[in-house]
């Protein structure tokens, strides 16, 4: 399995992906075999249905949004490069990376990029603000019909009140970072591959 | 210069030769790295294995997600209890029961191990066995079976010594474990203050566990997220309640007074009933009616049924947070059950004294009989080598053996307690749920929504039942070694039975509240019960004489004489000297004094640490608030700065933008921006031409804002204008 995967993936491609995302050689080959196992149509791209076959995503209330994050605007298929680009957000932060190249742009798995990824899960209309309605949608997905609507509304109001600092009744990205910074342990979106 | 640099480089290369991957050290280094990686992986796998070994974790998580952390805390407590009892059982079984069974004399060989002739034809009857008489009484379950030979078997195992040490060691171990758990729990209780900052935002954005892949677990996670939101809502509601302090205080005093009255009344009732039962014991048993014979049990059960709901109704006057109300309820029912304990111990001591009286006469008779036998034999057969009397063990005169009687009482109590608990669950929860579900189809009003509806899990009753049950076990373990094994079985079945009952027959509480982070309140009650149950056992070991013909201490003056004998006979001489010196009061008193001083010192340092902790938290809170307010309206709520600002001429205080909306009232935890009027003294230099601006709109007329230094009372407020 491993050898078949690496013959379909050329060395130069692996090098490019390595430079772009920071994954190691072995990690890229492992992820490529996972990619091909998900790709039932065997056409080198993944569709939304392929992702929904993953059980952890299927039962996740935010599963659809995470899947959406893989697909660039308006497209329905994602190739391996795009797949890796999104997965790069989940790579653990390594300390020595900070010193490597101060001039180059921020790597994809930096802390603020991870938070941006999480932020985009909630901000559906991409206006860089999480409004009350978007919070209500998320709450309804997480909790369902077990809590009354007015209580859900109060929870959403209270959340905004806690996090909002400039008084525009919505949570901007900076305010979101503040929430994240208080509980550093919990907003570490890391996966050990 | 170049040369120095070169030598530095060479030294570096030599040192890290292996790491650099070249040179002679590389194989060793690679090996070390590989072993380190394997070690880390092994440690992680072992930790995973240890976590997987924790019993019932999934069951408890399921209960937690559906019913909240307060109900789950009972089951966690039950599991902890099970672990404790398992260890106690291991001690008792391994060091007392097993040696006697394997190396001691079998059943029927000596009088104490045989059913007396008079009882033999009824010894196998079920009714007798269920009453723990017959063969049960003369088995390893009870104290009387154990022989008093100093050493038994090939290994020279000292059974009496082991019995005494295990009996005392059970208390010592339990004490150690309880205190250690309390200490460990109090460690984690310190971060409550940080929760206030982003509770809801945190719950909203981070509550889902992305590693869940199992649909069942996902259902549990949904339920637990819902429960967690409900808990936070309850907490919020409690914080925002309208505070009419005087009315509330009056109501609380009234409630406490009522409850004290009822506790006093029940105490007097118990005392009265016990006295009457003593009088009845002197009368002829046939003259008494059933009611009079069972008066004590009847009154106790009545009190146990009536008082807890009564306390709950009275407690509604107090309007505490549900978590605090639960603690009060627990404390009150605890006081009530102490009365229960008092009657039981009273009755028990009466019985023990009666048996001791009877024993004296039987003992005298036995000694006299033996002397007669020996003197007759020697005069008849004219030898000095007299064999022991040739009587079958079942026919020997037997003393009443009060220790076994006490053991039987405890075992009977435990068994009846088990029966009552299981029956209550079966009838009170299961039958009720069945009736409500199935009778609902043909009943005039909605049974599920109105009366009686489904039951809620009674946390306080169950916790107290568990604690008192453990108290009984501690008291009875010395007299009935089999009791601990019985308790282990009981806890095991109880866990499964109650988990099933909760999931199938109960509904979550109306107001789901988060349990306190530690179980320390339960542990505190358990500690109290441990001390209370230690006292009777130690008293009997020290004061009451053991029976002369049963148990491992028979024939001795006091039970603890075993230890003295061991020190004299088995240990080297100097250890005996050490013990004599160590028990000298002149040594013990200074040691006690030293310990008291150490406790005082540690208490003082811990208080200091707590204060320092609080100060740091306050500083952090102030820093956060200042930053937030600075962003909001570029003004300081720092009182000093505010005073300065007010002193500046021609400066009108902007009314602060308060991020409030109807329905999401502020809770004064750093979000409410209530401006305190600056109480600046008149400035001689620049006249402040207008009075301080309007106060920040206080949405609800609350009392003084809680939280850290908001400026009130900082120094003496100068005269207002």
TrEMBL record, chain A:
Domain called EF-hand: residue spans: 26-61, 110-145, 151-186
Source organism of the structure: Oncorhynchus tshawytscha (Chinook salmon)
PANTHER family according to UniProt: EG:114D9.1 PROTEIN-RELATED
Name of the protein described by the UniProt record: EF-hand domain-containing protein
SMART domains in UniProt: EFh
Keyword terms: Calcium, Cell membrane, Cytoplasm, Lipoprotein, Membrane, Metal-binding, Myristate, Nucleus, Phosphoprotein, Protein transport, Repeat, Transport
PROSITE patterns tied to this protein: EF_HAND_1, EF_HAND_2
Similarity section: Belongs to the calcineurin regulatory subunit family. CHP subfamily.
Subcellular location: Cell membrane; Cytoplasm; Nucleus
Annotated GO biological process: protein transport
Molecular function GO terms recorded: calcium ion binding
Keyword Cell membrane: yes
Keyword Heme: no
GO CC field: cytoplasm; nucleus; plasma membrane
InterPro entries reported for this sequence: Calcineurin_B_homologous, EF-hand-dom_pair, EF_Hand_1_Ca_BS, EF_hand_dom
TrEMBL record, chain B:
Subcellular location: Membrane
Membrane disposition: Multi-pass membrane protein
Keywords assigned by UniProt, alphabetized: Membrane, Transmembrane, Transmembrane helix
Family: Belongs to the TMC family.
Region (Disordered): 621-721
GO biological process, one term: detection of mechanical stimulus involved in sensory perception of sound
Composition-biased stretches (Basic and acidic residues): 621-634
Cross-referenced PANTHER family: TRANSMEMBRANE CHANNEL-LIKE PROTEIN 2-B, TRANSMEMBRANE CHANNEL-RELATED
Protein name: Transmembrane channel-like protein
Entry's transmembrane regions: 80-105, 126-146, 161-179, 253-274, 329-349, 472-493, 521-542, 578-602
Domain TMC: 401-516
Pfam family, one: TMC
Species in which this protein is naturally found: Oncorhynchus tshawytscha (Chinook salmon)
Gene Ontology cellular component terms for the protein in this record: plasma membrane
Molecular function terms, GO-annotated: mechanosensitive monoatomic ion channel activity
Origin superkingdom: Eukaryota
